[in-house]
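Minutes, project check-in
Item: structure for the 601-residue chain
Input as provided by the requester:
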Amino acid sequence: MLQYILYLAVLVALAIPLGGYIKKVLCGENTILSKVLSPCEELVYKTLHIQKDEEMGWKTYLASVLAFSGVGLVFVFLLQLLQGFLPGNPQGIPGTSWHLAFNTAASFVTNTNWQAYSGESTLSYLTQTLGLTVQNFVSAATGIAVLFALIRGFTRVKQQGLGSFWVDMTRIVLHILLPLSLALSLCLVGGGVVQTLRGADAVQLLEPVAITADGEILTDAVVDKATGTVTVDGAPVPGAELVTREIVPLGPAASQVAIKQLGTNGGGFYGVNSAHPLENPTPFTNLLEMLSLLLIPAALCFTFGRAVKNKKQGVAIFMAMFLMLVVALGSIGASEQLAPTALTANAAVDVSPVGQPGGNMEGKEARFGIVTSATWAAFTTAASNGSVNSMHDSYTPLGGMVQMLQMQLGEVIFGGVGCGLYGMLAFAILTVFIAGLMVGRTPEFLGKKIEPFEMKWSVVVCLATPLVILVGSGIAALVPEVVNSLNNSGPHGFSELLYAYTSGGGNNGSAFAGFNANTVFLNVSIGLVMLFARFLPIVGTLAIAGSLVQKKKIAVTAGTLSTTNGMFVFLLIFVVLLIGALSFFPALALGPLAEFFGGMA
């Protein structure tokens, strides 16, 4: 309990001052870094011919977002196909298949970072740095930029412009993402995370191991040093051999890890992500990476309150997100620590505290234990991050279900940088509309009337994620190729499928380990799901911003619904959970709930 409280307290303590800093960046005010970064900012404007004072309407702002993302999609796609002919490839890795290139490009452009490949063996250093790391910065900045436009929609009165997308992108990257990433990268390198352009090393094993021809480790094997014959209980094992050396993959990991966590991108330089000892070697690096998952999304709540000149409003939105996170974290932690009877029956899983922290330790690193693994799982599925330090496929049915539910709610329990907050604000608009109907008043939010135009687009933003997840997973369940990709059958197999499309539709990127997603159908379908779930809410958000910015402010009266008190926080949470429960309960009943109650039976 002390660890859980400590992690949450440190997160809040860091988020509040960062929120004030980001507000200054949003408003173009001077910051502690202005003397160093402002000349760089002016150089970018001059080089790219950006008009610093340009004001875009919502359609022009949207066109800029789509054009910028489209160019990035094509660039990353081609970079993967041609990496075998390009420099920065010391291991000589060939180009990827077209469908994997499309899936990966769509994944990183949409800030999802779903990976149907193992990074250290599939992509070159050039692709990882020039393609993926760059997209980690600009896709995160795109989400924050759209949020900035929405905030201006609330704060400006009877205007047309929402600011300039290109100015917002420049400021966000230079003043927010780069300084934070540089600081975190240096800390990670100091903690032992790999950062080099050198190729992989072959090292001598301290304890040589015997393996079968299928790669299975033989723990009780005896090796004849003279002949090299491997025997078990005196019987030779055909095809078995003694392994004395190991390939250690290296590369510029720390720089990519920093931005993937801070930008809620997720993904991993290594296939097993932050469970890899070279990507996350110590409790110190684990703490830094875990806090980075939610740092900017939490800070943006306080940025919002300061920007709209109503700090209580920012706190109210933050509390709605925070309370749902605490419940999710408690549910996952309790489920993993206690472990249901089905896991302990017939010693299927060792949950004793002998030689380990106790609880369901399957798929978790012994050096992290239940608490840090459960906290990371809750944080990464609350944010649209997706990085992992344990294997979610090995979580208990209820632990895995809570992770899925956090994503299925639309990634609004903090969610991704920018997109989580503008998604929650769409739910807030929906909440004040419902509350307005209950009391017979025209709904208002932050002094702006909420009319049919805003309501229609808010519904689109709120339902885009459930729609794309359910349609995508429903179609995939009918495809025989997908069944062959599952690591399990029955309810848990369906959970693997549902989790994959939930992760793609929720712009998350994590996966139930063991699910083989590198097929033509899965790569293409999940890629399309990611694009749809990312850009449809952006269209709706900018349409709402474009309508609000033209409206006048309405004076607060005695009959105005308060959107900063405990009742509004409760109503907001209720609406978020109601939409999620109505949308996903049947699917969850077929997967994790069926697995849980079936195991108990």
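Outcome recorded: The mean pLDDT is 87.
No further action items on this chain.
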